[in-house]
UniProtKB/TrEMBL annotation:
Record's keyword annotation contains ATP-binding: no
Record's keyword terms, sorted: Signal
Name of the protein this chain belongs to: Cytochrome c554 and c-prime
Superkingdom as given in the UniProt entry: Bacteria
């Protein structure tokens, strides 16, 4: 047993240093971009429509995914952000938030670290504009003002997890080894020239096809690096400790992109294909007569037994 533990530990230790031999083509940490002052400016900076001409099929797939509406969600995410403000930030004695006008980018990162990581490139006015837009959208829905609701929904969904969030901003994880993402480069599985004025270069991102890439957002639970950690997605932690640790060898991308054949239309519990891949369901039923009591006598009843078997590589539901 002791030898087995040493062998496993040695393998894990060696694996930890794989990034140092992997091929990464980042560079020195670049100067931060100027802060976006409006939602429109931030949306334009990360607008995925520039990718349509060459990657139409992938863009169409992405447009059907929740990544394309990461703040709006299913659409329960946007109201949940408001709940976090009302039931959390405004009640915490040291958050500094009593009114919406007090909200800062730092305050919202408890949600936006994953739902809109590029918010760190914006001013606090953008954080407040996002909150005001969500509130306006919710009010329009409540008033059955469909036209106004649709207008504000378009504004909310203009901010999303688009092409350059994954293929530039979040592309390189082990930055000491692989470098920092460069502002003129898109990262993926190839290197070379890229026919785009803003991103004229392509480079390899060693981890972009690995589960750790998705784990940046679909993580291990509390975001302890924040002043106020929030308990949220634990899918990657569950994947590591309850799947990989027991011999599982498929990645997030294997199931959610390749086996599902959904590509960049990355789905989970809202999609029938993913549900069938994740669960075995066994339903059995029987009818009988039951003598309840003297007054009500014998009653016909049905007994339904439902068994769910999780085939996924992590706990479900999760995010």
């Amino acid at each position: 047993m002791k030898r087995a533990i040493v062998v496993v530990f040695a393998w894990v230790t060696a694996w930890m240093f794989v990034p140092f031999t992997a091929f990464g083509t980042g560079g020195p940490e670049p100067d931060p971009p100027p802060k976006a002052k409006t939602v429109a400016e931030l949306a334009q900076r990360y607008d995925s429509s520039r990718c349509v001409e060459c990657h139409e099929d992938i863009h169409d797939q992405w447009s059907e995914s929740l990544h394309s509406r990461s703040i709006l969600g299913s659409p329960r995410t946007a109201p949940t952000i408001i709940t976090a403000i009302e039931k959390g930030l405004k009640r915490f004695p040291y958050s500094g938030v009593k009114e919406d006008s007090d909200i800062t980018v730092e305050n919202l990162m408890m949600c936006m670290k994953c739902h809109l990581p590029q918010l760190d490139e914006a001013t606090d006015d953008v954080a407040r504009e996002i909150v005001a837009t969500i509130r306006g959208w919710m009010k329009a829905l409540g008033n059955a003002d469909d036209e106004k609701a649709a207008e504000l929904e378009r504004k909310i969904t203009s901010l999303n997890i688009g092409c350059t969030v994954c293929h530039n901003k979040m592309a390189l994880i082990h930055k000491y080894a692989d470098g920092y993402p460069q502002s003129d480069t898109v990262y993926g599985s190839q290197q070379g020239d890229h026919e785009d004025e803003m991103y004229p270069k392509m480079a390899e991102a060693p981890a972009i096809g690995e589960s750790i890439f998705c784990g940046q957002c679909h993580g291990e639970g509390p975001n302890f690096e924040l002043d106020h950690p929030s308990q949220c997605a634990t899918a990657y932690g569950s994947y590591l400790f309850a799947y990989v640790a027991h011999g599982g060898d498929e990645s997030c991308q294997d199931c959610h992109m390749r086996k599902s054949e959904l590509g960049h239309n990355i789905q989970s519990y809202n999609d029938g294909t993913m549900i069938r891949m994740a669960l075995d369901v066994d339903v059995k039923g029987r009818s009988l007569f039951w003598r309840k009591n003297k007054e009500e006598g014998v009653l016909p009843i049905g007994v339904i037994n439902v068994e769910l078997y999780n085939k996924a590589g992590h706990v479900i539901p999760d995010g």
